[in-house]
Amino acid sequence: MTVADERLARTGLARRLLIRPELGAVVGAVAVFAFFASQSSTFRSIEGVANWLDPASTLGIMAVAIALLMIGGEFDLSAGVLTGTTGLITVVLATRYGFAIWTAMLVALAAALVIGFLNGLLVVRTRLPSFIVTLGTFLMLQGVNLGVTKALTGTVQVSGLRRAEGYEGARAVLAGTVQVGGTGFRVAILWWLGVTALATWVLMRTRAGNWIFAVGGDDQAARAVGVPAERTKIALFMTTAGAAWLVGSIMALRFTSVQANSGIGQEFVYIIAAVIGGCLLTGGYGSAIGAAIGAVIFGMADKGIVFAGWDADWFTFFLGAMLLLATLANRLVRRYAEEAKP
């Protein structure tokens, strides 16, 4: 019997699983957990889980936002340094100019959104590659962070946030801990799960999610059928900037100080986590859940190597190997998905 509409055709469970972008990340996460759990009993304990979920949470928030942007066909190389910029704005306003902590954070959020808007506007209006536009932003923010910090403090660090009005409340909300089984888990983990859930809902259940996949898959075709491509891409850059503000605020509240070079180099880790999670560098394919799992793999490797008693220098080797394997796996899965279409 011939099915009239391919959307009504039934597909097997195995095929549906194989074409999921996060499949490779799930398999990788299970393998990495099994490996390090066999090397260290601490790694698989509840204290160990809390330990490796900590770096995964802040990385995961950014990886999910970067994944949305990559699905939309763009990159943001300024995302890492922007976490430092927003943290510096918050600490400077709260410690040097007497702002209440929440007010300082709102100003930092506004600054981040403006930067994200300008990144997106430059990309869609000039048609320059987002790699070039955001690389320029990265270099400018790096210079501003260092120049302003040294001008204000004479050093490369701004500190003293603990004395700011409202600090304890803000820390409890963004950088505190919750007790689970007698072990403290960072509140940032809850923010990470919330961001992942929200991003997944947007991608899978809303018109905006369809627009993101459309502009990433074929920008011109999306415009031809009425997708607001420019607005969608600008919104994605602003989303990435908002995530950078959240991570920058969490880190500033946690350490009560910010270094001028904070976040530099992290943009590549965010992209790696998104790629490990199933995002294609060409856009139009990926998932927020996959990016979150990619962050889990990062967190497990980061702490697992330490728990296993290895030289920490092996971490970068591991990260590079995971990137290559994930890219190859994503390519094979994507090819299978295209061939499986009826």
Structure explained in plain terms:
With 342 residues, the protein is mostly helical. The protein is 73% helix and 4% strand. It has 15 helices and four strands. The chain has helices at 13-18, 23-39, 41-44, 46-71, 79-96, 101-126, 130-153, 167-174, 188-205, 207-217, 219-224, 229-255, 266-276, 288-307, 314-339; strands at 157-159, 177-180, 183-186, 257-259. The strands form two sheets. Strands 1-4 form a two-stranded antiparallel ribbon. β2 (177-180) and β3 form a beta hairpin. It is globular, with a radius of gyration of 21 Å. The two termini are 14 Å apart.
Entry keywords:
342 residues; mainly alpha; two-stranded antiparallel sheet; 4 strands
Q: Per DSSP, what share of the residues sits in E-state strands of 2 or more residues? A: under 5%
Through-space gap between termini = 14 Å
Described by the principal axes of the CA atoms, the overall outline is: globular
Mean pLDDT: 89
Secondary-structure element string: HHHHHHHEHEEHHHHEHHH
What profile does the largest beta sheet have? Answer: 2 strands, antiparallel
Major sheet: order of its strands? 1-4
Using only CA atoms, what is the Rg? 21 Å
Can you give the helix content as a percent range?
A: over 70%
Structural class: mainly alpha
Number of strands: 4
- Separate helix tally: 15
Q: Poorly predicted ranges (pLDDT <50, ≥5 residues)?
A: 1-9
